[in-house]
Amino acid sequence: MSSVGQKLKQPKNLSERIRFLRDYYFKGSQRNWNNEFTSWNCGKDWDAQYNEMHYYIVPETFALFQTMYQSFRLSSEKVEVPDDFFRKNIAQRRAYFNKKVITDFLPCEILPGDLLFGSRFNLQTSFCLDKKEMKDRNKKILGKNGLRKKAIWFHDHGFGNAGPTGGHLIADYEKILKYGFKSVYEQAQSLYEKLSPKDKKSDMGKNLLAFMEAATIPKELALRYSEKCVKLYENEIDSKRKEELLKMSKIGEKVPWEPAENFWEAMQSLWLTHMLIMSDENYPGPGVSFGRIDQYLYPYWEKSLKDGMDREFGKEIIKCFFVHCNTAYDAMIRTGNNGITAGFGQLITLSGMGKDGVDLTNDLTYAFLEVIDDMSPILEPKPNVRLHRNSPEKLLDKIADMISESQGAPFLLNFDERSIAGMLREARLAKLENLINLNNVHDYAPVGCLENTMVGNDRSGTVDCNLNLAKALELVLANGKEFFEVIDPITKKREKIRQLGPKTGDPTKFKNFDQFFKAYEIQTKYIIRKIFELYDKGESIRSKYHPTPYLSCLVKGCIEKGKDITQGGAEINFVTLEAVTFATTVDSLLAIKYLVYDKKICEMRKLIEALKNNWEGYETLQAIAKYKAPKYGKDDDEADEMALKVMKLWTDETWKYKTTSTNRQFRPGMLSWNYWVSDGYILPATPDGRKKGQFLSNAICPVNGADTNGPTANTNSVGKALGGKNKENADYLDYINLLPNGASHTITFNPSILKDNQHKEKFKAFLRGYIENGGTALQINMLDPEMLKDAQKNPQDYRHLLVRVTGYNAYFTSIGKELQDEVISRISHQKI
Amino acid sequence: MNESKGLILEIQRLSTEDGPGIRTTVFMKGCPLACKWCHNPESIKPEPQIQWINSRCIGCKNCIIVCPERALTWDNGVIIDRTLCKGCGKCAESCPSTAMEILGRIWDVEKLTTEILKDKVYFEKSGGGVTISGGEGTFQSSFVAKLSENLSKNKIHVALDTCGFYSDQVLEKIFPFVDLFLYDIKEMDILKHIEFTGQSNELILKNLIDLSNKCMNNSNKKIWIRTPLIPSMTAREDNILKIAKFINENLSFDVVERWELCLFNNLCKDKYRRLGIKWELDDIDLISEKEADDFLSLAKSIITKDDFCYITGSKRLVEN
User: Fold this and answer.
1) Which residues on A lie below 8 Å from B37 (Cβ)?
2) Would you say residue A343 has pLDDT above 70?
3) What is the ipTM of this complex?
């Protein structure tokens, strides 16, 4: 999720140290030092490193799989493994291998002035599979009926995408800060020792040994960095820097193995612990998130301030931490930062409520906000600020100021009441009330972009399944088939039209909308089963062949059960089904009802013809569908009722599935990363008037330009689609939330909403209104000149843009070119 | 129109420019004045009108076929013969892309109340409410009185944006339910006022004094004064000085909370074009920043109360 309109913002208040580190980072591939992937093999000719299943959810990389697979293989360096290597289980092998690479081979470097160590972590390491295992894995993935083919088929046919990807969770960092990795090691050790001799030889016993091995990686690495600090100390002439290096070397002797005792130690412990997760998964930064960083670090912050740490120096450490987070992007620095690397989201969560709705904003919350303000624009970590009914005015003031200065929010807002309602709902539906309840639910935090999870014990696979709800419409309209032959984008091979979904009947024979909707229900159930089946296959391969023992040490439940996290070891195990094209689907259903059944403007046959012809030759009908049929997002109760009906349908169905290999429960959410743009070129024309090639709707947002009643109406519609508010069957207080994962919502404001202090108060009040009526997460964008220029060219997409002056209103697209230019010029100069 | 039905031009939500807090502005149709600078010219006539929005038209010509008065023709676009058009709205109904638009729709007062209440939470959080604007709210006084009554029963703050050209009986009906009056003093010179607006300002100024007195006895009701600053018309030193003096001498500062000098707005050029009206002010530039500042200083030199005089609207971008 990117926030547009940050162009004008410049970093500020940077010390010489931070300016150097930040500027150096932005030199990108010009740097002498970087954190590019390095690749390592175990000396066997069948060995490989690149796990393409991570990227089944990144369709733009499909064509690169073979290249990546080969290039990492060919460029890998050999690491000697002991003779008994393949007698151990895969988790043990991976723990051993990764430890060897990290502690024996990776260079330890510290950039000038850096206050934190831990620089190289982007790795591609051996799968550590023996010949037979590798053969089986390759057959399952690359074979004739292999997963790769299925994943690509699923995407090329417009269903969406699915695959077991990494990250997207919050490790139990707090435990490491408080008790050190020592405690992890000891826990695994004591469980292992209690096992019977037979169990010791079982997978459970072997996993515990793997966890123990993995738990020592950070200790040994920290010691290496500590030695490096001593060397740098010896060659340093600046006395102040000498002192810092000496302190850093002491810190390296202590954390993360031992508990941290001050802020510097805590930040160091946190960073090293965190970065090694990315090493362990061989995947840089995919939503490996920090959780409520201003809460669990606060005791250290407070203590260090009391002990005399200068507050500015504390912020300086945080700024170094920010720079480190960004180096995840170095993974493929030579091939450019697109595709895979654009999707990182190491989130930090700030503020939010505690038990009983008490606000937990503290001085560290503000310190982080100040750092964001000073450092932005910067890519990582991505901040989410949690708001709720008792959020303090001071926090909202700071937020309004930052948004105003950045011309768009440099953070995402998360809304506690609605989010908590979703978490309690999942607890109830998955019977996890012992793990998620009123005593701890306030500790939830988002990962990736905005996906809500619990902390330290939860893997909810928040981006693993992305389903185009609109696909079910096409299947209804073609009686379970697709409209067209699918042509392979690379080989140009044509695939004949086949019966895919159930035969739901000839749509031209449906007598009323209810019959149509019945068919839609059946096809929706079909596409959900389809994505489940695809994911389930990948999940079983991952659980068998791709353990992550280091990460498992950091997620509660894995050690206790002696089970790797990839095998379902975490206490809370969900897979999230993220629905894409929600509003496009709702508006299409509304249009069908309006055109064919209510107003009888056309027969079904004609509508289908129009869609098959991509609306060409049917422009009048298309315009009616687009501009006259009801739309979701305008606070129109009837349209929003359809939205809720669709929401209930697919979410109820989602709850019916669990993975077969790992027993992970499916739960619903709405994030649509960039699929709403790219899949627009795959899905055919839709009944809402959209042509093939035009964008689909994004997450829970209304269709672009459909929210003609402005931000409050848009917000109300979103809240209603999530279940609204109701005292009787609410999930939390009077809030209902059908999407425990949360839903991505973006609103674009006219910058005039923040033009002076009186308007800032209005904007703050809007946010307080959003807490009551809106969704779980909000990205705030500000109208920028680029958008207005696009509106001049494509007025049909921007009918909702309003120009407001006292007592006056006009739609941007209905004023003449010359005046439009003037408005654009005003927005550019922030004079509106 | 009556108590239960009103002719409404537009309902604008998240309105941040028409009174305190977040508001929903209801633009009523019909106005007793016809100011030369009016930036909502489509709101003046008290009956529905149609307009054609070029950028939305897909050229299907449905409108021309359905028009019962044969008021529409096509010549590189839709041409409306306004002498024939009766505003029946059939063209707008048949237009697939909303290029033909009916200006003015009849709303039921209860439905409108329900619609407005959808944003109640935003009004509450911001100290906002509803602004009845126009056109002229008092022009459909029974409807506006009923709407205001409904809203005030729901504890919604009501502001009435008025030109002040109304009778005592009209005010009687509305007064109890309005919390804030946004009251225009456009021009102090009677002849000029007639020239610019079509009506004299005597009734308007008398009504304002009465209103101020009436509000005195009702501590919760407030007035904001608004003056449009129109180049070569109202934007004259003598006019601003006289208005400032008028406020000072006749009105109570316990009641009148602010005075807004609203800068000339030319974004409505195309509205005139679409209505087939040649606009006298079509070529007039916006007021420059310096001029605006000078007028504000002038106002402040007479009325020294803090946070009282304001400038609103857009200034000229490039100084020339």
Assistant:
1) none
2) no
3) 0.95
